[in-house]
Amino acid sequence: MLIKVRFFKCGILQCNVVLNEGDIVTIWIDPKRVFLVKLAKGKRLDTDKGYILYDDIIGKEYGDVLKLSRATAYLLRPILEDIYLDLKRPSQVLYPKDVAYMIYSSSVEPGSVVIEAGTGSGFLTISLAHFLGKEGKVITYDVRRDMQETAKFNASVLNLQDRIEFKLKDIREGFEEKGVDAVFLDMPSPWEVVEKAYEALKPSAALIVFVPTVNQVEKTYLEMEKKGFVEIHAEELILREYKVKEGATRPKNVGITHTGYIIRGRKSIKTS
Amino acid sequence: MLIKVRFFKCGILQCNVVLNEGDIVTIWIDPKRVFLVKLAKGKRLDTDKGYILYDDIIGKEYGDVLKLSRATAYLLRPILEDIYLDLKRPSQVLYPKDVAYMIYSSSVEPGSVVIEAGTGSGFLTISLAHFLGKEGKVITYDVRRDMQETAKFNASVLNLQDRIEFKLKDIREGFEEKGVDAVFLDMPSPWEVVEKAYEALKPSAALIVFVPTVNQVEKTYLEMEKKGFVEIHAEELILREYKVKEGATRPKNVGITHTGYIIRGRKSIKTS
Amino acid sequence: MLIKVRFFKCGILQCNVVLNEGDIVTIWIDPKRVFLVKLAKGKRLDTDKGYILYDDIIGKEYGDVLKLSRATAYLLRPILEDIYLDLKRPSQVLYPKDVAYMIYSSSVEPGSVVIEAGTGSGFLTISLAHFLGKEGKVITYDVRRDMQETAKFNASVLNLQDRIEFKLKDIREGFEEKGVDAVFLDMPSPWEVVEKAYEALKPSAALIVFVPTVNQVEKTYLEMEKKGFVEIHAEELILREYKVKEGATRPKNVGITHTGYIIRGRKSIKTS
Amino acid sequence: MLIKVRFFKCGILQCNVVLNEGDIVTIWIDPKRVFLVKLAKGKRLDTDKGYILYDDIIGKEYGDVLKLSRATAYLLRPILEDIYLDLKRPSQVLYPKDVAYMIYSSSVEPGSVVIEAGTGSGFLTISLAHFLGKEGKVITYDVRRDMQETAKFNASVLNLQDRIEFKLKDIREGFEEKGVDAVFLDMPSPWEVVEKAYEALKPSAALIVFVPTVNQVEKTYLEMEKKGFVEIHAEELILREYKVKEGATRPKNVGITHTGYIIRGRKSIKTS
After folding, report:
1. How far is CA D41 from CA D26, D36, D53, D86, in A?
2. Which of B179-188, B210-219, C88-97 has the lowest mean pLDDT?
3. Phi and psi dihedrals of C110, rounded to 5?
4. pLDDT in tens, B3-18
5. Are C37 and C54 in contact, with CB atoms under 8 Å apart?
6. Are C109 and D99 a contacting pair at CB < 8 A?
């Protein structure tokens, strides 16, 4: 689990690349051995390929290499996907491919203000905060305090907490904001809050919904159609990873075959 | 085709929503009738569902509705996908799903500085400029002046030209930058410039490549492996769109079955 | 359109390979120019690549080659897929990939007796008759006389009419057979006849259903579960065709993205 | 593992449905508990849901039901897929979906004579023998005696041994047959024997090849093009299984993402 830390944001010129106590590092040995750690003097990471003393990392920089007894370890600057791997848990269904497309499709940009419900593990929350920048804002609703505490902690690890507002509230009672740039829903009954999302959105702005079943797709899509959204799309992204070997390249044989569906539409101004 | 215009960036509070001459608008009638236009007094749009006088749009706001003789038209704030639809041409293979995943996987953020080659129609260029914000920078290389002129024009339409630097140069001679946050390649022989990309990248930063054939995947992946990249992935995204109807929901019957593959890896510091 | 003809069944030793008047031939020029014809003296086929006199085909054998003015034509023994291509029409949703899997999954064999409803264009009917052999039997129900007439005609072209029994009847009133080896359903409301299928089947035999929407999948699957079927599967087959070129192999860019879902289960003996 | 047994072929009228010692039965408890057994007096099957005495099965019929201490077991007539599940092993890559499409695409029929190489676990061999009927013949080549012994055993379990001829030979030296109705290849370097397959085939008959990598697809396809095959297709079948639940239907989350590619073409008579 991650611990609070100043994070990896650094401009191209003034970036301090020397790793210090408190920095977080992705230690990558191979695709099955990826570790997201916070550096602390005197601590160590034990793996079946050998151990790493954090003191040996301190003073190195991102991109550097360490020799273990039975492998090589690479010290990488954490990217969103590393964080995703670390967050993974049973309740997590949103994958990077989905989050990428949801954010892109919404056309939010640095400085946008968006609403999200529910918070869940905070993976979409953190991704949004990352892309919206310092001037952006993510307001995230959930009814479960424990989920929000975890997400809050994860966000603070990445020093993104100032871009996020956590609200412990059932959004079936409505959102507290008006004129937001996008609403993202990842919850069991999104059709129940389509109208609330409509009210919170700026005209022409996007509602983006993620659901795992086709029944939810149908209900949500039809409700959006009825409540004033236009240009509605229901889509699914299937990711195939390839195993590349000279003269023997092919897709991997076993993997994720389904995560969920993305429904998106834009608010039109209803004419009564 | 688009024309130069001040663009739709507006904060949540100070956004001027009244449409004026010079603004660009997505006119959405149905999935097959989507038009990206620049408002000009006295002009009109003719469709098989009726005509629209631009003078009738001026004074309305994004999200508003217009009645045509045989349909309803919605005035939407353009999103990246609308621009994509307008840019589409035979040489265009990068789809929104691909661009979304490429940008996300690179973990670039507002303020990042990235390199791209080739420029092509400028769709990835514009998308990057959008997400990197005012303080970000996209340096885009191409050997074809005509392509760059088109991309330059498209970028200026969206008022993103200040975030983009166009360079007319064969990158097999190397990039002029060092320490960039990501390199994106969409060109026929990316394996020839993997080493050049390595030199231009900040340690631990990502190289993201898009290619249409499996042979290119293999060559690029193996070259990246050889030249110091780690955590390399070769992936493909298949998008399925659904046709939603009450009690009769199903995927669309005909569509895009392939765009290309995405290969990505991170620069490790080579130990000689 | 096909015409009645003695067909291509011939054993490995006694097969008369010399093509005569009345034989049917697949004339294959390229993937977009495939013609299924019945040879008749004095007739001709006109294509944009040149014409073919049927008199020039008579006397040749399957596998032979003809030179046209602007292309080469191959004379092939018709296979089920050629017939499929010739039958194609708006109402046709069952593709060879689906029919192949449906027949295989049912584990029918030469000599089996099966029921099918509805007949449709007869493509599944003909495929079943082909694989069940001379001693097999396909009993096919439909409420539309015109569909059955077309299917009957198509079957007679392939000389398969003796293996097929056409019944013009609404199967919601029940099937007239008992103890059949498999039941195949390709109709709008299969869940309404699941019980009828159960009654017609031999214990342990398979019910195989094809439907285009996910709503139909759910209704059919649940009804099968309720009515005594076990080992029920709901599956979908996605076919990707590749464009192979030396050093530039990739999936085709545009194609069929959905045909339908296959639900299958086996009859258990209900214990009351 | 299976044991020699008289098999389940029975016509619709004269089928002896009472299960006896020596019969094989698929015992289906749930999707994860499927057992293919040969009945023998005094023996038993132990599962974590309870045990079954074979003496309790003898005297029942296919489709019947048995109560276990913690579940219900269904006694099913084995279908090809059950046999597939029992045969599964690391070297097995051909799945039912692939075998179904390969057999269908070849348009073989009861009575056809076909060649196959290599034999492997014998799953394609058995499937072919099943569909070709008593008058059909499968000649299967392999260089490994152990593989052929296993396949021979499996075939005899299903009483299909009289339809299959096993040949222990490296087919790079050529096939011993001429004029066969189809050739099926499932081997590492199929392009090396494309010419041999051509020589063995009847004009217009099909060569069907299965390979796991894209490199093999390219080599095989190009060699077939060069050696006189026409109407060549390279295809891949992706199977998605659905989890059906009332109001919550969706594809399974994890599964097989790749098995292999199927290349097929028909022999034209070369004109020198």
Report:
1. 17, 16, 9, 22
2. C88-97
3. -55, 130
4. 333 333 443 333 446 8
5. yes
6. no
Strands A164-168 and B137-142: unpaired
- A231, A209 contact by CB (below 8 A): no
Q: State how far the Cα of A46 lies from the Cα of D99, in Å rounded to an integer.
A: 46
CB pairs under 8 A between C and D: 225
User: Which tokens is C175 given?
Assistant: 């099937």
3-state secondary structure of D241: strand
Reported as a single tens digit per residue, the pLDDT across A18-57 is: 899 988 899 999 988 989 898 999 999 999 999 999 999 9
How far off is chain D from C105, nearest CA to CA, in Å?
Answer: 7
Q: Is there a contact between D258 and A258 if contact means CB atoms under 8 Å apart?
A: no
pLDDT category at D158 given cuts 50, 70, 90 is confident
ipTM of the modeled complex? 0.91
Mean pLDDT, rounded, of chain A: 89
Distance from CA of C220 to the nearest CA of B (A): 13
- Give the burial string for D144-178 (b: 16+ CB within 10 Å, else e): eeebbebbbebbbbbbbbebbebbeeebeeebebe
Q: Which residues of A touch C214 (CB under 8 A)?
A: 214
The partner residues of A209 in beta bridges, in order of sequence, read: A185, A263
A vs B, Cβ pairs < 8 A, gives 224
Give DSSP secondary structure letters for A75-136.
EE---HHHHHHHH--TT----HHHHHHHHHHHT--TT-EEEEE--TTSHHHHHHHHHH-TT-
Annotated binding site of C for S-adenosyl-L-methionine: 121-124, 142, 170, 186
Rg of chain C's alpha carbons, rounded to an integer? Answer: 21
Residue C271: per-residue pLDDT? 60
- Nearest Cα residue in chain B from C249: B213
Closest residue in A to C250 (Cα–Cα):
A250
Q: Which domains does chain C have, with CATH numbers?
A: 24-78 (3.10.330.20), 82-267 (3.40.50.150)
Q: pLDDT tens-digit profile of B97-130?
A: 999 999 999 999 999 999 999 998 899 999 999 9
CB contact under 8 A, A218 and C218: no
Q: Is the pLDDT of residue A13 over 50?
A: no
To the question of whether residue B170 is assigned a binding role by annotation, the answer is yes
Q: Under an 8 Å CB criterion, which residues of B touch D?
A: 214-215, 218
CA distance A139 to A129: 10
Q: Is B56 assigned to a binding site?
A: no
Both tokens of B163, joined, read 């975030």
Q: Do C258 and B249 touch (CB under 8 A)?
A: no
Alpha-carbon gap, residue D84 to D95, rounded angstroms: 8
Q: C124 in helix, strand or coil?
A: helix
